[in-house]
């Protein structure tokens, strides 16, 4: 049976998550196709990575849309903003798990990928700034420090999954508690610790879902 383009993509993602430096020959072998067959779908390793990076960015965007990030920023309401933060972080766990190699892939230096990445990052920065104004996140922290902290936590998610340090079902709670206790204002920290996702809800007591 012929292997489809989507099947090759799935195999490539799985293989690159375990070996980010895998060659095109390695990826073809993992997908169960010849290099010639793989090249009929993707002209080069860079071409394949471009497609995979776009898919990863699609997941990032989906996480923001499902969390209602832009709506939360417009609302300015602490409860709405905290819910959006909580749900976005949960969505980013899924993205980091499915496309873990992208977190440190230099392909994001490609202009079209960088443009999309910058746009998505801008939306997150706007959410963090709105959270600071609403008293959800600490106003004394630079907003890009908060953004970089989230990125660092997603790397921790990847490594914890790879090493089996944290059970998958516990990751939302661990991530939320780490984030809200470090970057959140006092009320948010307390709420995140008492009711994190995986234990019946997000940091609801701080005014979120």
Mean pLDDT: 86
| Class from secondary-structure proportions | mainly alpha
CATH class of the largest domain: Mainly Alpha
Which radius of gyration do the C-alpha atoms yield? 19 Å
N to C succession of SSEs: HHHHHHHHHH
Shape field: elongated
Amount of helix: 55-70%
What is the domain total for the residues?
2
- The CATH architecture of the largest domain is Orthogonal Bundle
Strand content: under 5%
Helix segment tally: 10
Largest sheet: none
Might you state the CATH topology name of the largest domain? Tetracycline Repressor, domain 2
Strand count: 0
The N- and C-terminal alpha carbons lie at a distance of 47 Å
Poorly predicted residue ranges: 189-209
Quick overview:
It contains ten helices and no strands.
Q: Key features?
A:
Tetracycline Repressor, domain 2, disordered C terminus, 70% helix, Arc Repressor Mutant, subunit A, single chain, 209 residues, 10 helices, mainly alpha
Characterization of this structure:
- The chain is mostly helical and 209 residues long.
- The protein folds into two domains: 1-43, Arc Repressor Mutant, subunit A (Orthogonal Bundle); 54-206, Tetracycline Repressor, domain 2 (Orthogonal Bundle), CATH 1.10.357.
- Helix content is 70%, strand content 0%.
- The protein contains ten helices and no strands.
- Helix 4 runs antiparallel to helix 6 (78-98), helix 5 (69-75) packs parallel to helix 7 (111-133) and helix 9 (171-183) packs antiparallel against helix 10.
- Residues 189-209 have low confidence and may be disordered.
